[in-house]
Amino acid sequence: MADVLIVIPARMASTRLPGKPLLDIAGEPMIVHVLRRAQAARLGEVVVATDSDVVAACVEKAGGRAVMTRADHVSGSDRIFEALDVADPQRRSAIIVNVQGDLPTLAPADIAAAIGPLADGAVDIATLAAEIRRADERTDPSVVKLVGTPVGERRLRALYFTRAEAPAGEGPLYHHIGLYAFRRAALARFVALPPSPLEQREKLEQLRALEAGMRIDAIIVDSVPLGVDTAAELERARAILGRGKTGP
Fold this sequence. Notes:
- It is built from eight helices and eleven strands.
- It is of the alpha/beta class.
- The chain is globular and about 50 Å long.
């Protein structure tokens, strides 16, 4: 497959967890855990896109590469798009993978699996999903659901994303994992689009792509990585990684 660039957006301005990228987990900053997991996927170069000199210095101390970006981006997608001009000025990378900087338990194999649907020329963006196993997560609005139709083994074509319990009826529900692999042209198109009506209603950026007619396919994986947004989740990540586990 074409050359791949992994970009990890990392900003310091978190309202619930100030300084989140640098918070210690099992002896290392969170951003370093994510960096190493992205590198372990062995897809291509990994870059951290940040608005913080301190984060950049932390990444470089760990042997990684950091690219400075503006502080006023409203989304990680916008931040990684700005970083592209510096990270890949010769435009060698045809696939750009957006790995969120607050997923310290993300499995490297799942990062690698995410790009699989892009072997299909009809797919603009690829992502991940996992079957919801806990009953309470079916109705939890913080658990984003991917509504899709099967198009291959362990692969769904996304029809909708929602915070509601959907679809109705018997059958599995899927938890959407917020990792995206973009064709370079698809990323450029996506960030140029204005916010869409359903995106604004559900507060889900990926709906902008669907409303514009872009195709998103998802690979089904076996576990959901822990997203660290609260103090409780930080303590859970510390417990998980302190035991040497790779997932929640």
